[in-house]
Amino acid sequence: MALPSNLVGLGKKDYQFSNWAKIFTCKPALYFQPSTITEIQSIIKSAVEEKKTLLTVGSGHSPSDLIMTNEWLMNLDNFQQVLQFKPHESGLYADVTVEAGLRIYQLNEFLKGKGFALQNLGSISDQSVAGIISTGTHGASPYHGLVSSQFVNLTIINGKGEIIELDSTTNQDLFRAALLSLGKIGVIVKATVRAVAAFNIKSTEEVINFETLLEQWENIWVSSEYIRVWWYPYAKKCVLWRGTKTEEPLTAPRSSWWGTTVGRVFYEALLWVAVNIYEPFTPYVEKFVFNRQFGSVETLGDGAVEVQPSIESLNMDCLFSQFVNEWAAPLNNGPEILSSLAKSIETAAEKHDFYVHVPIEVRCSNTTTTNSEDSTPDLTNRTKISPGPITGNNLRPLLDNTPRLKHAPLADVTNSQLSLYINATMYRPFLTNSPIGKWYKIFEEIMGAAGGKPHWAKNFIGSVEYFDSGKNEGQFQDGEMRGFALKNQEWFGDDWELFKKLRQENDPEGVFVSNKDWAIRNGIVEA
Ligand SMILES: Cc1cc2nc3c(=O)[nH]c(=O)nc-3n(C[C@H](O)[C@H](O)[C@H](O)COP(=O)(O)OP(=O)(O)OC[C@H]3O[C@@H](n4cnc5c(N)ncnc54)[C@H](O)[C@@H]3O)c2cc1C
Ligand SMILES: O=C1O[C@H](CO)C(O)=C1O
Questions:
Q1: Which of 37, 49, 109, 391 is most buried, judged by most C-beta within 10 A?
Q2: What percent of the chain has a predicted confidence (pLDDT) above 90?
Q3: Is the per-residue pLDDT at 369 higher than 90?
Q4: How far is ligand 2, taken at its centre, from the CA of residue 324, in Å?
Q5: What is the CATH number of domain 82-199+367-378+386-396?
Q6: Could you tell me the distance, in angstroms and rounded to a whole number, from the CA of residue 444 to the centre of ligand 1?
Q7: 202-366+416-456, CATH topology level
Q8: Which of 20, 62, 227, 514 to mutate to test the pocket of ligand 1 (most atoms within 8 A of CB)?
Q9: Residue 1: which pLDDT band, with cuts at 50, 70 and 90?
Q10: Which residues of 145-160 are buried (b: 16+ CB within 10 A; e: fewer)?
Q11: Given this model, what pLDDT does residue 9 score?
């Protein structure tokens, strides 16, 4: 293979890439870390000429084989500059243009220095800017939507090497595609994010019974700007975390048993024993850990309070290497979903069929949009601690996996506007795999029946019913993805067709159809 002279020395051979959880590893034929836009264009052009596919990765935090390839792999860690900082005269928000390889924690640091912050985050800040956009990363809030709703514009390079500017009015459809593209539309090189004045969050952490969660379902989810629940099914308990912007002074962070070295190693060792030696030990590990971390008394209305900067508050300790299978469904279906999951988990434990790890994360987001092209914020009566977003765009990404619900103004938001996310985490203690297949099959059946769809980045499984790979059930390894090709067509309807059309137009040679197996089994391209 002859590379053009300007690429010689740029593509590394013998590079081994693993995702963060170390579930998947690949050896790309060539690995690139370009430093200029021209280099990116040359790499794309050469890949087309050499009939290779090109996969762009960010920080590799997606837990699935979505980001694996044996062909060409590119990473934008040399694209981490802040290019422009434009504070609005009100001091309430600022538009910040950055190179897309910047990590979220680096962006957080930059914004902190200017007195600003991102409006909402997922559980971590390790992702790249492009990565957090491209898979539909979300946080936990009845007012905020996907993290990509904070973005005002994007610049991509498509499969023809063309640089294309995208925003709510310029190339609107392509913008909606690129706001969740799985890297299959083009390479995001630049993005403008709308940040708000830095804020602290006052949060309470309440221990509640599982039954209380179901009883309070109507009121809980709209009771705070930021809200998440960690469910411990064997203990039949939950932790209800609620946060609100505040001007109160900072307090010391809450203590964490598993945040100590001893607690952490002990917890991982207990899990290792449960996974590798005696699975029925799992519920005892859960109950022990819950008591050490949170205590055993219900504290509804009297939870432990903490005031922390937004980032420390919104991010959390995700503990160990893990599989995650996360689906979004209408929040109104939550009690039915959780009751079915609880029953299945209990029955499985009685029969020693499978065991689950904890917490099962229960979150919500408000992904309803006005669809307005105008992204000029309405700042009437707004202060630095007003709840709700100052959105960067009001468009729905074509591949947004959350249910299509009707938008309502902030003051009228009820559960009917909200998407429920349920995240079934299964740890890999000391990097050993846990059995996931039986649990994830039941989880997906329940989530699917309740109008759910999987988060694109995660370890969903799918079914041979939706993609015939030629293998029969017995030939799949535990937890191996079968895919959702046919189902995706049904789930996403016209948006699916539009995404595929735009993909084809912008990548006529299929240079971004990297990890073709993943793309085919999920219907992004035909077999
Ligand atoms: C511990 C942990 C906690 C997490 N918490 C959350 C959470 O709270 N909420 C949530 O929704 N998700 C969460 N995730 C998932 C994570 O946010 C997503 O997987 C995210 O996409 C990872 O970003 P990344 O930079 O690592 O991208 P990667 O995983 O490297 O890539 C993800 C996708 O982005 C594409 N991509 C990367 N760079 C570019 C580019 N420059 N141009 C075009 N496409 C590109 C890739 O091709 C790929 O399709 C979590 C993951 C982990 C491991
Ligand atoms: O993928 C995810 O991992 C963490 C849970 O550990 C989280 O919140 C996700 O989302």
A1: 391
A2: 97
A3: yes
A4: 7
A5: 3.30.465.10
A6: 21
A7: Vanillyl-alcohol Oxidase; Chain A, domain 3 (3.40.462)
A8: 62
A9: low
A10: bbbbbbbbbbbbbbbb
A11: 81
